[in-house]
């Protein structure tokens, strides 16, 4: 089920919605929610982290559409933003997530090196084999 942004535009609700969308594989929608959360943030670790998470969500969207090169580039741009916030930020277990993201990065590199970047679907779009995208987990408070 696709969710839209909350009417209240409350920052915590936008971030939580984006997290839920990300974990459900709704990467484009997640990008929209997190971008609305990210825009008003002051410069700093939180803003950089959220920008990195947005880049990862867009990377998975590109990967699903068969754009392996674009997905790889976005994940590589996101990685320094995420590592700067390790081990935990915004209640997220980033160390565990980053370890899984490194494995996904390796899969993308292997896909890019092959001639199997994507398969053509009936409607003419390409679709690269999707990974088991790592979920972002919030730590218990």
Short description:
By secondary structure, the protein is mainly alpha-helical. 57% of the residues lie in helices and 6% in strands. The protein has one domain (11-114): Hyaluronidase domain-like.
Q: What is the element string, with H for helices and E for strands?
A: HHHHEEHEE
CATH fold-type name: Hyaluronidase domain-like
Counted by DSSP, the helix tally is 5
Shape: globular
CATH level 1 name: Mainly Alpha
How helix-rich are the residues, as a percent range? 55-70%
Overall structural class, as computed from helix and strand content, comes to mainly alpha
Largest sheet: 2 strands, antiparallel
Structure description:
The chain is mainly alpha-helical. The protein has a single domain, classed as TTHA0068-like (Hyaluronidase domain-like). Helices cover 57% and strands 6% of the residues. It has 5 helices and 4 strands. The protein has helices spanning 11-23, 27-38, 45-64, 68-83, 94-113; strands spanning 88-89, 92-93, 119-120, 126-127. The strands form 2 sheets. A two-stranded antiparallel sheet has the order 1-2. Strands 3-4 form a two-stranded antiparallel sheet. A hairpin with a 2-residue loop joins strand 1 (88-89) and strand 2 (92-93). Helix 2 (27-38) packs antiparallel against helix 3 (45-64), helix 3 packs antiparallel against helix 4 (68-83) and helix 4 runs antiparallel to helix 5. The mean pLDDT is 83.
